[in-house]
Amino acid sequence: MHSENNQEKSGKKYWRSLEELAESPDLLAKMKNEFPTGAAELEVTAGVDRRKFLGIIGASAAFAGLTSATGCIRKPSEKILPYNKRPEDLVEGKAQYYASAGRFGGSVLGLLVTSYDGRPTKIDGNPSHPMSLGATNAFAQAAVLDLYDPDRSQKVLKAGVKADGGKTTAKSLKAALAAAAAELKDNAGQGAALLMEAVPSPTLLGLVREFQTAYPKTTVAIHDPAMRWQEAAALESVGYKNAQLVNRFDEADVIVAFDADPLGLEGDVIRNSKMYAAKRRSVDETKKMSRLYVVEPAFSLTGAVADHRLSLRSSGIGECVLALASELSDLGLAIPADVVARGKQAANPNPKWIKALAADLVANKGNSLLLVGNAQRAWVHAVAFVINSALGNVGRGVIVRSSPLPAAKTLAELTADINRGSVQALVMIDVNPAYTSSAEIGFAEALKKVKTSIHLGYHADETAVASSWHFPRSHFLESWGDLLASDGVASIVQPLIEPLFPSLSEVEFLAGLLGKTANGYELVQNQWKSTAGADFAASWRRWLHDGVVKPTLGETLSGKSDFSALGQRLVGVGTSPSPSASQMELLLTLDRSVYDGRYANNAWLQELPDSITKLTWDNAALMSPRTAKEKGIKTGDLVEIKVRGEKERRLKIAAFVVPGVAEHTVVVQLGYGRSFNGRVSSGTGFNGYELLGRDDAFIFGAEVQLAGGKYELATTQEHGVSDYEYDTKVGAEAIRNRGVYRELTLATVTAEPALEKAFGKFNLGNPKNHRTLLWTKTTETRGNQWGMTIDLNSCTGCNACTAACQAENNISVVGKNRVLKSREMHWIRIDRYFAGSVDNPDSIQAVFQPLACAHCETAPCEQVCPVAATVHGAEGTNDIAYNRCIGTRYCANNCPYKVRRFNYFNFSKENDEQNPLYAMQKNPRVTVRFRGVIEKCTYCIQRVNAARIESKLKGEEIIRDGGVVTACQQVCPTDAIMFGNINDPDSRVSQLKALPRNYAVLSELAIEPRTTFLAKVRNANPELDSSTQL
Amino acid sequence: MHEGDRVTPIFPKWTNRIPTLVAIGAPIVLIGVVSFIWYFFSPKWTDVGYSPKQPVAFSHQLHAGQMGMDCRYCHSTVERAAFAAIPPTETCMGCHSMVQAKSPRLQLVRDSYKTGKPIEWVKVHMLPEHAAFNHSIHVGQGVNCVSCHGRIDQMKVVGQAQPLSMGWCLDCHRNPYPNLVPKDQITNLAYDPVKAGYDFSTDPHRQRKDLKPPQHCSGCHY
Fold first, then answer.
1. Rounded to 5°, angle at Cα A989 from A986 and A994
2. Between β-strands A648-657 and A615-616, what pairing exists: parallel, antiparallel or unpaired?
3. Beta-carbon separation of A78 and B77 below 8 A
4. pLDDT range class, residue A756, cuts 50, 70, 90
């Protein structure tokens, strides 16, 4: 049979979870079920039993009869409330777009925000901004929901309780700010401190300087997970004061990331991804692509897309870099002698691997790039910079730029100052250190010693209630501001809506505390008047329109690096001990969903499955299968992690066993388990900050023990299984890989005939392997015929598409309990597969495949719908008329990709009831679905229709290529998704579909999906991987 | 019981005719019920003629009919947007700050202009929310306002003239040509393309001759 062929010849086996790899009976049982878990059970509100439920049903039916008796005469009348004075340029019901900017995960992104009738509904990237280049990430997508967060701070708090009788108005807010300013004046003279994030906002930093002038005894401290302290210290030690590194992936043919995640959470992720992907896609034209090596303790997105990945605990990374330096020196590279000397003694985790890497780097001198992650110490950054210099990468792939931030202390240093009594007044701008810091630093206790502490924050969070004053912060869509991207391009942050609640922006807050007028618009304008030159009004309008300010600010430092002090730095560096089962290494990382906890109250992000673990609503203690087995720990077991520090720190947390984690390492993501009780965040996960120490994110000597008890973790990794089928002929219920995910090696792609042969193994286009076509194609072939390609070679699994789809298409959030029953509603999910041997962590690979409705030409769902609610559109789309759907779910059952979602409850109404402001985010162009109907990807049909109307009005029959951009395509930081007219051979999507690596998932079913995939190409180093397997 | 006694019939004699009556009557009743529902439950009966009382007694007959104001003077977004927006109060006041400036019937309009509170007009043409209708494309392709809205210029109080049901929409989407008028006659509600002898296929101002309005679900429902 075809399936056997696939499995035997495709070589590589992909699996979704360890359970599946082991073919666990539980999973097999799950797969056999027609519907996902719990679908046949009656679920009613707690406390209502079945009998009572039937009673309610009967009563409501009777009421429905009564109302319909009157209702059928006339539907209820509706009112139209026109504007009194229509704002200029506003056309009712038409979207308007405004350029703005925001800072997400440490990167400044230029944004283009969609607004309907004055209501911001969607955030997208500004194509003319160098850091977003038109794309965004999941954080930026979800930021619009934050605007409508009903739990956002709405009241001024004084000593943790509501000031002015709990009725904060714009007026009382001003009065409170003046009172706080007066209090500040009384105390700040004896020693003040400003604690803020590393926000590169010229206006805000100008005000900080003014603050320092007004109160000369002011300490500035920065508390920000994106702040690159270690990199800055390393740069300082080689002669660049107050500098930062900017990476250019478009210059790099060989990229090496040491515990760094430049494509996921660190630095200018979007720009890095765009440039990286372009270097990967070039394989189709030039048969060349970049090669990515990653050494890391647990899967990051960068590690997942790496061509070669070495699994190594964080504390071993530095040694690894040193070993590489010494290896490079052997190959003739000019590395300072003291570094080489230390490198000779370094513990080399894999000499063969390092040797091959060194040779590759030397072969690509000047076109390579070494990156070191934020968690690593300064000396590791310094050694990597030495290597970058020796390879001639500095000035090309690695650029040293001046940092706009002032000299600042860390939170630990500030806390020491407070404890010494030198800080009487503390101003905190949008930070939450009472939660986001280690108990070992003791900030929360120190805060009590400060006479006046004034806090500005978006939520009345852990720090807000502990401060003497708390002021609500405006959302960036409500306030004026400015942000400087890392390459010096500034953007004006432009509001789209008046603050929903009385609140202050960062600049208004600080200006108000200085006794200045708290008008953000004036403050920002004054800042930029000098830059504009003669005609300020014209420049200002242009900047607001374009979203970027010209000229750029800051400078590229080109001074000579001085490595003389480097040896000194390496003196104290000892070899770190290897962890063991009893003395494990603990690593605390930022979370891909809630970051450092700031997005914990965002329902979209909480329900977004983590890229690797596919966990929703929780974090967990991640462990490799081998380590877990050694310790007798299984996924879902509660474990206790104990760390000895100044005090013993403990955390009880659920374990999650996942491949790719370094041996004897336990990884805990931060940001969960908050005591701040939001409607969304409450009861999610475990507080990793309780384990955090004073210095490093990685801690040696953690004890991990079973704590007894179980915890249910909602992971979606086994949801929507479509890649296996039962082979009953074998006798046993063996599952067969159907070649859903496909990859090639660069060697196969370069040898043209081999490629044909390779793809032949997948039986592509071989009619013999097709099942009989059950019905004739009904699709028309004229006009626009929509199709999509998803390039698996570019995709980094970042989840931006899932979040963007949720924002665009009014997709509901269902909550953890329903995710456990496979009821999540995401229209586009990202399947993550592992490949490799569980016993060899270095062999583990992770790959991503975004999957949404593929709009099959002979769609199986359409054939089984008893009411013709899902039918084929004239342009090849698989349509749903929600009002026809009666909820039989036959279509979902018959869908081979398992991409149809059912509204088991009135999720959308529930969402709106729980979070009353969420309704304001809804896209008015998309129907909000009701209980009992199926929904799924529509190819953003609302955008197709809008484009069709636009082109018809212009008198054009065919929508031009690029006229329709789907939400997932627009947001994709790697341009992996392409959408367009497949009827036009010149459209970009047609050209991609003509590539030899184009394939259809489950093509043997002859369903002819309109969405096809481009196989991943792995650029393996022949020294390390000589196999030409697929 | 005696011989010759006649048994008193349980059912009177006329009941013998019941089967015949049922045979004839049932189909009539059935057809009657079906027709009743067919017509009286359809928007042709329930919706056509709906003309709610408006807060301001604005007469389209006076403004659009007698004075001949173009529809687009007030409903200015009709060519650009999905909605033919109700004009803002300031549009009314553009004239009525001078014309009929003291009329008590315009008190609400003046109040609205002064206070900024919108006038609460009652919606007449109510499409279901899952039907996405776009004015701009219909007007842009030359469908006269009258095709859907009737002779607004003759209505003192605006009422619904057409059923606006899906079947009615599709009738035109299957054959739009009888409803097409030259672009300069779009808002001329009295214009009859048949009488005027308008032939869309020879209209030099019409770029698209083959209109192909969507007939599939996602053309309107999404």
1. 75
2. unpaired
3. no
4. low
Round to whole Å and give the CA distance between A971 and A137: 7
Q: pLDDT at position A371, please? A: 93
> Residue A763: pLDDT above 50?
no
Residue A876 Cα, gap to closest chain B Cα (Å):
10
Cα A524 from chain centroid? Answer: 30
Average pLDDT, chain A: 85
Instruction: Say whether residue A611 is in contact with chain B using an 8 A CB cutoff.
Output: no
Chain B nearest-CA residue for A952: B137
Q: Say yes or no to pLDDT of B102 above 80.
A: yes
- What is the pLDDT averaged over residues A143-169? 85
Residue A682 · residue A645 · CB < 8 Å: no
- In this complex, which of A80, A84, A949 lies closest to B116 when CB atoms are compared? A84
CB A944 within 8 A of CB A786: yes
Q: How crowded is the C-beta side of A384, counted as CA atoms within 13 Å?
A: 30
Please report the pLDDT score of residue A725 as a whole number: 56
The pLDDT confidence band at residue A10, using thresholds 50, 70 and 90, is: very low
d(CA A848, CA A967): 19
- Are B89 and A871 in contact (CB < 8 Å)? no
pTM: 0.90
Q: Is A79 in contact with B120 (Cβ distance < 8 A)?
A: yes
* Residues of A whose CB is below 8 A from B94: none
> CA nearest A750: which of A277, A254, A284?
A284
Structure tokens at A220: 């500035």
Question: Is residue A732 predicted with pLDDT exceeding 50?
Answer: no
Report CB contact under 8 Å: A873, B218: yes
Per CB-CB distance under 8 Å, the chain B contacts of A73 are 46
pLDDT score of A59 more than 80: no
Q: Which helix (H) or strand (E) holds A912?
A: helix A907-914
* Integer Cα distance of A1011 and A802 in angstroms: 16
Helix or strand run (H / E) with residue A290: none
Q: What is the DSSP letter of A459?
A: B
Task: Write out pLDDT tens, residues A232-262.
Answer: 988 888 888 888 899 999 889 999 999 999 9
Measured distance CA(A340)–CA(A638) in Å, rounded: 45
Tell me, what amino acid is at A683? Answer: G
Band of pLDDT at residue A539, cut at 50, 70 and 90: confident
Q: Are A312 and A349 in contact (CB under 8 A)?
A: yes
Query: What 3-state class would DSSP assign to A730?
Result: helix
pLDDT bin (cut points 50, 70, 90) of residue A760 is low
Task: Label the pairing between strands A192-196 and A218-222.
Answer: parallel
Asked if B80 lies within 8 A of A93 by C-beta distance, the reply is: no
What pLDDT sits at residue B222? 87
* DSSP one-letter string for A937-989: --SSHHHHHHHHHHHHHTT-SSPPTTS---HHHHH-TT--EEEEETTSTTSHH
Closest CA to A597 of A456, A433, A473: A433
A938 touches chain B (CB under 8 A): yes
Q: Return the structure tokens found at A996.
A: 């030899």
- pLDDT of A68 > 90? The answer is no
- Residue A16 Cα, gap to closest chain B Cα (Å): 33
Q: ipTM exceeding 0.85?
A: yes
Sign of torsion over alpha carbons B75, B76, B79, B84: negative
A988 in Cβ contact with A980 (< 8 Å)? yes
DSSP secondary structure of A715-728: E-TTTT--SEEEEG
Helix or strand or coil: residue B102?
coil
Contact between residue A599 and residue A593 where contact means Cβ atoms under 8 Å apart = yes
Partners of A93 on chain B (C-beta within 8 Å) are: 77, 81-83, 85
| Residue B170 scores a pLDDT above 80 | yes
Comparing C-alpha atoms, which of A543, A452, A472 is closest to residue A202?
A543
Q: Hey, are the CB atoms on A84 and B117 less than 8 Å from each other? A: yes
pLDDT of residue A949: 92
